């Protein structure tokens, strides 16, 4: 979480509060450019103070619509997975703060749906979007519904990014994501530590774009994995210097070998 800067005062994206990591900013850029070869709309479920929305807005082209949806701190039974999460949002989040941050980077606001994400089903035209970011509620029921909305509003070669797909304290997100992969035809493209990127179309062209981007980056690494026989890319940070090499070895080697690498040295 970035330290607080007054709404509308950030000089760069890194000063906008939020949890949107640099590696995901990179992946958003690659996938937004790839999907942007044909016009289509953008949708974000859960915008908080605008960190990821500001980046999405950078990729909005002439004639496309960008919609964000958030509760902006409004309480309603069962909307948040945890009471402490709701208390945190009430203290830090207002629609005005989101708007001030967004307008600090862009001339026009996106379309704002100030409601639960369930309201989107009747607001966004089926097949109209090229990119959807799911980053709102963390309950299984809500995320499963959000994925269903994404499936309906995305065009076939669109991409969905889903936050917290493997975070320990929000198991409902993982449940909804893997349910979609195994029963709703969702096909993973790549994974970062925080987000899963997937499509209901062909993952391969997006995976090619991710590989092409990674070849020019010494600070990022792409590792090939498979899920039930289908290729998926794991994208991670490469730390510079010898510790980077060790970290990479730990990430890439099979568990038995990597356990040997982390075993503490015994005195002789
Ligand atoms: C993790 S934050 C989003 C972070 C933001 N995408 C970023 O990268 O900075 C989650 C947001 O989802 C909103 N939210 C939670 N449950 C929601 C729901 N059921 N419908 C709409 N918004 C919701 C919260 O108000 C909060 O602003």
TrEMBL record:
<dbReference type="Pfam" id="PF13578">
    <property type="entry name" value="Methyltransf_24"/>
</dbReference>
<dbReference type="InterPro" id="IPR029063">
    <property type="entry name" value="SAM-dependent_MTases_sf"/>
</dbReference>
<protein>
    <recommendedName>
        <fullName>Class I SAM-dependent methyltransferase</fullName>
    </recommendedName>
</protein>
């Amino acid at each position: 979480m970035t330290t607080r800067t007054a709404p509308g005062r950030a000089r760069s994206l890194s000063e906008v509060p939020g949890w949107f990591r640099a590696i995901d900013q990179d992946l958003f850029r690659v996938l937004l450019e790839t999907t942007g070869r044909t016009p289509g709309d953008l949708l974000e479920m859960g915008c908080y103070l605008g960190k990821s929305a500001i980046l999405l807005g950078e990729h909005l082209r002439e004639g496309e619509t960008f919609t964000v949806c958030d509760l902006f701190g409004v309480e309603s039974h069962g909307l948040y997975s945890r009471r402490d999460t709701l208390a945190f949002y009430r203290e830090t989040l207002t629609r005005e703060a989101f708007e001030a941050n967004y307008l600090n980077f862009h001339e026009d606001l996106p379309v704002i749906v100030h409601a639960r994400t369930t309201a989107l089903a009747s607001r966004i035209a089926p097949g109209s979007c090229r990119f959807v970011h799911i980053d709102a509620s963390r309950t299984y029921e809500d995320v499963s519904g959000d994925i269903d909305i994404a499936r309906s509003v995305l065009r076939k070669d669109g991409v969905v990014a889903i936050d917290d797909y493997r975070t320990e304290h929000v198991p409902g997100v993982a449940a909804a994501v893997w349910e979609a992969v195994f029963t709703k035809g969702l096909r993973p493209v790549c994974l970062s530590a925080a987000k899963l990127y997937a499509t209901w179309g062909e993952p391969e062209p997006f995976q090619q774009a991710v590989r092409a981007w990674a070849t020019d980056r010494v600070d990022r690494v792409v590792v090939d994995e498979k899920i039930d026989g289908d290729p998926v890319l794991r994208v991670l940070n490469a730390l510079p210097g010898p510790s980077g090499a060790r970290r990479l070895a730990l990430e890439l080697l099979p568990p038995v070998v990597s356990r040997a690498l982390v075993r503490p040295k015994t005195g002789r």
